[in-house]
Specification:
By secondary structure, this protein is mostly helical. It contains 15 helices and five strands. A three-stranded mixed β-sheet has the order 1-2-3.
Length: 357
């Protein structure tokens, strides 16, 4: 048991996600270092890199959903810690006592400001350990380099998250859903208010690790998984539609629109030779698109729709379609399209299960 306590407590992370986080931190620090801050200490302008920026980059790019990584926590936390570190450095002569007081006061102050950000402790320690630089910069150290560098990292992290399909800053419970309306997305309708979710986080002392929005999404995902398990071992191959109407990449947009009207579909797959899957066209694409006469299926299809295999369990399909981003999931064998699971297929599966109980 003692040895098990030393094993990793974090779930394994896919390689692409680890690489995404590493590249983000690299890009963020390179941009800050090359264009704004100098790697060498500049006690005149104060525009120089400090080690805590590396710790901030870990949070901003690797765990962007953490409450400790949000813009308020990062910017306010680092700045408040810098102010405290400077104040202690200017008034306490003993190095060991200076460092301990700076970090201790910074931890207390950032918690009271609701801006706990672990690198802030390192910011306070950096100020306490560099009395010569602080003597020249004084409280300006909090503005440059600390606040300036942190703001830049937050801006870069925000842009990088959007470009790589992630959410930063953290999604809140009352964020607009995929339809841009105020109703909570289905995955966050946990039956609990934001205040109740926050109360749960405080009760179990998890409010520094998880936000109310993410807790709602976890509860919703758990409910979907439990519902899928009650149905039994139903897979995509069991419930998918097999007799498919498809179009080629070169099919004209007008012909695609005619197929939607004729068959009353909400989605149509796009395939190549040998039924090779290329993408999906959703009815909403036609409604919102400013189509030109020369447009084809390739120009209006969505190529990044999540796909399933015939063995994908129902629970995974529920999670893919719960938030309304897609209403159909292609089912592939290798690269070939063999079926499509729609929301109607899911509803029918649940209805059959209910009648058999």
């Amino acid at each position: 048991m003692a040895l098990r306590a030393l094993s990793p407590s974090v779930a394994s992370t896919p390689l692409p996600e680890a690489v995404r986080a590493g590249i983000g931190a690299l890009v963020g620090l390179v941009i800050v270092g090359l264009f704004v801050l100098s790697p060498a200490v500049d006690s005149q302008l104060g525009l120089y890199m400090i080690a805590p920026f590396g710790a901030s980059a870990v949070l901003l790019f690797a765990v962007p959903n953490s409450p400790l990584a949000q813009p308020w926590a990062a910017i306010v936390g680092n700045t408040v810690a810098a102010l405290i570190g400077v104040a202690v450095c200017l008034h306490v002569a003993d190095p060991a006592l200076r460092i301990a007081l700076a970090v201790g006061f910074a931890v207390t102050a950032t918690i009271l400001c609701r801006a706990l950000h672990p690198p802030a402790g390192a910011v306070a320690m950096t100020a306490a350990m560099t009395p010569d630089a602080i003597a020249e910069l004084g409280y300006r150290f909090a503005l440059t380099p600390v606040a300036t560098g942190t703001v830049l990292l937050v801006l870069i992290a925000t842009i990088y998250a959007r470009l790589t399909g992630r959410h930063y800053p953290m999604r809140q419970v009352d964020d607009l859903n995929v339809n841009q309306t105020a109703d909570p997305s289905p995955s966050t309708r946990a039956g609990l208010s934001e205040a109740e979710l926050n109360s749960l986080l405080e009760r179990y002392r998890q409010n520094f690790n998880l936000g109310a929005g993410d807790l709602a999404r976890l509860v919703g995902a758990a409910e979907l998984q439990a519902a899928a398990q009650r149905i039994g071992p139903v897979t995509a191959g069991t419930i998918m539609s097999r007799d498919l109407v498809t179009v080629s990449a070169g099919t004209g947009a007008q012909e695609v629109a005619d197929l939607f009207r004729r068959h009353r579909f909400t989605s149509i797959p796009v395939t190549g030779p040998g039924r090779r899957y290329l993408g999906m066209i959703f009815q909403i694409h036609l409604i919102g698109a400013d189509m030109l006469p020369e447009d084809t299926a390739r120009s209006i299809m969505e190529a990044n729709v999540p796909a399933a295999s015939t063995d994908t369990p129902l629970g995974a399909l529920l999670a893919l379609m719960a938030d309304g981003a897609v209403d159909a999931v292609p089912v592939l064998t290798g690269l070939a399209l063999v079926g499509v699971v729609t929301r109607t297929d899911l509803i029918s599966a649940f209805a059959r299960h209910s009648m058999l109980k």
